[in-house]
Specification:
Helix 6 links the parallel strand 6 and strand 7. The chain has eight helices and ten strands. It is α/β, with parallel strands linked by helices. Helix 1 crosses helix 3 (102-117), helix 3 (102-117) runs antiparallel to helix 4 and helix 5 (169-179) packs parallel to helix 6 (198-206). It is globular. The protein has a six-stranded mixed beta sheet, with helices on both faces. Strands 1-2 form a two-stranded antiparallel ribbon. Strands 8-9 form a two-stranded antiparallel sheet. It is 37% helix and 23% strand.
Length: 310
């Protein structure tokens, strides 16, 4: 039975996230236009002459027969968008040494994309990986469905071992790619420290969907403090290691290797066709999110509607 205190804490956390997103980001952008482009649409609006590269399934055969030249149907673009958030909840996310844990940033990123894209009837689905099995919340519209999805992510249990064979990051992305045929937006929130071939899986998703890779980090993953002997444990394997952090050479090598890994993850996401957003536990994640949205809108011009804040 769920303790009343835990239910109250969850409700307070989700309500606080909703207020942060809707109040601090209200007026900056509208959820309907977070995608690269609107869908091809199903409502017919007219016809035009066939051009090389047009989809043969849109041929208007009646008009073609009458005009004696090939014509294709045109449709009004669909403004409704379906967004799926792939949330990595593996053991490496249960770590944080600054303002919060990385798992808190996973929930925050899901809430930010969710509340903004769920406006005006847009649908949000959630796929949670990193545990023993995948957890799927079907895509639905409305605030109640949104809060239910975030509640499932909030309640995802901590784990002290690696993900199951069908729940690592690559398997989670492949599962979504097999089931999601309609073009839309996919937001992958992870530290991308998973040893599976998630890069290939992101590339497959990016062929059909707009993909955003949200990389979450903690400052202690990028540099070591000078505090003497430090004991560290790999949360997924249980391996324990003691290091002498007084060594300046060791700290320098660690920082260089960590920076290289961070840049490689970013490069892998971009080369796979995804956008990259970096969130850290020692910074205000909403500021980083707002900067990402602003840059995204500036690069896309009229394809994304970005409004100045009130």
């Amino acid at each position: 039975m769920t303790e009343p205190a835990s239910v109250a804490a969850k409700a307070a956390t989700l309500r606080r996230l909703e207020l942060q997103v809707t109040r601090r980001l209200d007026g900056m952008l509208t959820g309907d236009y977070l995608a690269v482009a609107a869908g091809p649409g199903t409502e017919r609006s007219g016809a035009r002459p066939y051009e090389p590269g047009d989809d043969a399934r849109r041929m208007d055969w009646n008009l073609t027969a009458r005009a004696l030249t090939p014509h294709v149907r045109t449709t009004d673009a669909d403004t409704e968008m379906e967004t799926w958030v792939v949330a990595d909840r593996s053991a490496s996310l249960d770590f944080g040494t600054a303002q919060c844990e990385k798992r808190d940033l996973v929930l925050a990123a899901a809430a930010a994309f969710g509340f903004l894209t769920a406006r005006h009837g847009n649908r949000l689905g959630l796929l949670i990986g990193g545990g023993d099995d995948l957890m799927r919340v079907p895509a639905r519209s409305g605030r109640v469905s949104m809060m239910a999805a975030l509640s499932s992510l909030y309640e995802s249990p901590r784990t002290h071992r690696g993900p199951g064979p069908k729940a690592d990051l690559a398997a989670t992305l492949d599962s979504l790619n097999r089931s999601k045929r309609q073009r839309g937006q996919v937001v992958v929130v992870s530290d991308f420290l998973d040893g599976s071939d998630w890069r290939t899986s992101v590339s497959r998703l990016a062929l059909r969907h707009q993909v955003v890779g949200v990389q979450v980090t903690d400052p202690r993953e990028l540099r070591l403090p000078d505090i003497g002997i430090l004991g560290v444990i790999d949360p997924e394997t249980g391996r324990r290691l003691h290091v002498q952090t007084n060594s300046a050479a060791l700290r320098t090598r660690f920082e260089a290797a960590a920076a290289e890994r961070h840049q490689r993850i970013r490069a892998d996401l971009v080369s796979a066709g995804a956008e990259h957003l970096h969130l850290s536990t020692d910074r205000d994640w909403l500021i980083d999110f707002a900067r990402f949205v602003a840059i995204r809108g500036a690069l896309r011009g009229s394809r994304v509607r970005v409004w100045a804040g009130r």
